[in-house]
Amino acid sequence: MSIIIFGGNGFIGRNLLDALLCRSGKRQRIVVASRSVPNDLFFLQKSDDLVFVNLSESAENIARLAVDKGVTTAIYAIGEGSPRSDDAGFEGAALCFEKSFLRFLDFLKLKVIDTVYYFSSSGALRSFSQPIFALELVEPLESCYMARKAYHEMMLACVAKRLNIKLRILRLPNVYGLYHTSEIQGLVNIVLRNCLRGNPVNIYTNFETKRNYVFAGDLARSMVSLIENHDVNDSYYYFFSSRSRTIKEVTDSIKEIFPNIALTNMLSESLNGECIESSGRKNFLTHETPFGEAIARTMEWEQGAQSCVENLRS
User: Fold this and answer.
1) Cα–Cα nearest to 76, from 51, 47, 39, 107
2) pTM here?
3) Which of 112, 139, 211, 290 is 20 to 30 Å from 274 at the Cα level?
4) What domains sit in the chain, N to C, each tagged with a CATH number?
């Protein structure tokens, strides 16, 4: 297996990298295109089978490295929830996201890849059952985020069709877990982080709203299984847990760990959305950690990450 991961040091990308590195006894070459090398993997960066390249490199340089390593599969795992220090909030994160996506398109146009896996949103674009070759919206797009996702899928579909690239769009629900660093997205991680800091937690969603939550480690392991399964030849995949949970169920699980934390519901109106498991679409999540255990593992990681930050500051 030879793969390049765009965003391999990000939230989903780093979980995917861990899952790939745990494939015991199987030869693989992984190129990680990211803005930095993970500190705990720094010792591996000169390995012949794991190579890091900075996303600021030109598409031509990244393509040359991919060819040198025999890479034929690309995974795009760059999200827009983690603005860098030189960006500002949502607008900065979105701008950073767009630049990375355009660099990825330039890379694809160099024709060194035959298969692309693209992480997208299940909730924002649930009305689309396949990659968008002709953008005909069944429902109006309600946010800039939804518009960007629809635009990206349309662009990827057009490029893939023109270059004869196999496009695999992976629709995800709400993902939480290890390596999540965003301060503007991700209910589970942000609530746990504020609990560890001793801050009061304000929930800006009605407690009865239902969402589907997937542990990032389970998603990554399922993704590796999908890549290894050469018999699967769809272009559209859903990953979701066995059932959705209300916001209250999620916060109650967290309150079992932090019983004294103050959680405040800031909205009164009902915002119940469509439950993903009722859509009747095939689920490709092959691993599912019990919710309480996944929350505990996420909390342990958040605790370690906070201790690391505090040590650096001191």
Assistant:
1) 107
2) 0.85
3) 290
4) 2-175+213-238 (3.40.50.720), 183-211+244-274+290-313 (3.90.25.10)
